[in-house]
């Protein structure tokens, strides 16, 4: 499963990229607004920090003509850019147009398998299924992910299911179990994935024993 970091913060991207396990970055208008910096400069810096990675940058218009203008502008900035498009009617029309032009898309704000079917049929590269926001409502956000992965596999669509709105490592585990292709998450959640109390206590013991014996590698 690919791992993307969900942030517009250059420092966070730099830190995640240093591990060498990062496949891409997702941003959204809220995350870009938080940076206090320009959209283009932020996205281009992210592309530079994650060579070859898929970098999602979102359109903000809600009518087809303006969405298309924005999508063509954003995608012209860098070959790594994936145009993020909300799942609304003109959005699906836009994904069809962009797919015909060979421009990769990430359809966002997807909450149900029927929405995901529309995105897959339009030729979306990624389908961003939000889980945390559904969990917040007291439902199981992963249900739609499981159904969507089944739907993609059953009908042989090329789209990848991207689990978004990930809040904790259990979401990542469930994404793996569902057979999702990608999970995107904040850097803080990615850091939690390293953690296990037995790893910490085990390392402490190894180092105590080593030091007590007065050993040295060099
Ligand atoms: O970028 C889309 C998604 O990952 C947002 O997550 O935590 O704002 O629901 P969240």
Please explain how this structure is put together.
- The protein has helices spanning 10-18, 29-35, 39-49, 64-77, 89-100, 113-122, 132-135, 142-155, 169-178, 187-192, 197-212, and strands at 2-6, 24-26, 54-58, 81-86, 105-110, 126-130, 160-164, 182-185.
- With 218 residues, it is an alpha/beta fold.
- The chain has one domain (2-213): Aldolase class I (TIM Barrel), CATH 3.20.20.70.
- β1, α1 (10-18) and β2 form a beta-alpha-beta unit.
- α4 crosses α5 (89-100) and α6 crosses α8 (142-155).
- The mean pLDDT is 98.
- The structure holds SN-glycerol-3-phosphate.
- Residues 6, 26, 28, 130, 132-133, 164-165, 184 line the site of SN-glycerol-3-phosphate (G3P).
Topology:
Blueprint: E1 2-6, H1 10-18, E2 24-26, H2 29-35, H3 39-49, E3 54-58, H4 64-77, E4 81-86, H5 89-100, E5 105-110, H6 113-122, E6 126-130, H7 132-135, H8 142-155, E7 160-164, H9 169-178, E8 182-185, H10 187-192, H11 197-212
Parallel strand pairs: 1-2, 1-8, 2-3, 3-4, 4-5, 5-6, 6-7, 7-8
Helix pairs in contact: 1-3, 4-5, 5-6, 6-8, 8-9
The site of SN-glycerol-3-phosphate has 9 residues, from helix 7.
Shape: globular
Q: Estimate percent helicity.
A: 40-55%
Give the percentage of residues in beta strands. Answer: 15-25%
Q: What count of domains describes the coordinates? A: 1
Multimeric organization: single chain
Cα Rg: 19 Å
Mean pLDDT: 98
The unique ligands bound to this protein are: SN-glycerol-3-phosphate
Number of helices: 11
């Amino acid at each position: 499963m690919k791992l993307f970091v969900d942030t517009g913060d250059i420092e966070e991207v730099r830190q995640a990229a240093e591990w060498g396990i990062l496949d891409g970055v997702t941003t959204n208008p809220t995350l870009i607004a938080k940076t206090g910096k320009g959209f283009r400069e932020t996205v281009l810096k992210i592309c530079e920090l994650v060579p070859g990675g898929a970098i999602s940058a979102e359109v903000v218009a809600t009518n087809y003509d303006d969405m298309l203008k924005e999508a063509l502008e954003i995608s012209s900035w860098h070959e790594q850019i994936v145009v993020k498009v909300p799942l609304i009617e003109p959005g699906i029309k836009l994904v069809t147009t962009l797919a015909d032009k060979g421009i990769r898309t990430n359809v966002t704000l997807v909450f149900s398998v029927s929405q995901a079917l529309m995105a897959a049929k339009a030729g979306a590269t990624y389908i961003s299924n939000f889980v945390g926001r559904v969990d917040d409502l007291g439902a199981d956000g992963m249900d739609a992910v499981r159904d969507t992965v089944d739907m993609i596999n059953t009908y042989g669509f090329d789209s990848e299911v991207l689990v978004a709105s990930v809040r904790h490592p259990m979401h990542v585990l469930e994404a793996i179990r569902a057979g999702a292709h990608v999970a995107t998450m904040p850097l803080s959640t990615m850091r939690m994935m390293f953690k296990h109390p037995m790893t910490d206590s085990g390392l402490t013991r190894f180092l105590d024993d080593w030091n007590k014996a007065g050993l040295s590698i060099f």
